[in-house]
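Case study 2.
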Amino acid sequence: MGLTTKQVLEAIQAALVAMVFPDDYVVPEFVGQNVFERVDVYDVPRLEQAMTDLLNYKNRIALVVPSYERFTNNAEGGILSEECHPRHYS
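Prediction:
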């Protein structure tokens, strides 16, 4: 059984939250701090809210906005390709 979309998004969010600046980072005062001060997940219908939050917080924010488009992966003769099946929003 595969992962649900929610589980994948939670894993992406957790990975972004866990990112910290390395010891050899060029700006010493950032060393050990989280790369992102805020990590939020928005769906496409809430994209306007995501952009508003981006403008309000400005400082080291990550916005994850999945498109929920379906992809089909194909492998032929050692070549991996994917086909996007776009979702149309009204």
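The mean pLDDT is 80.
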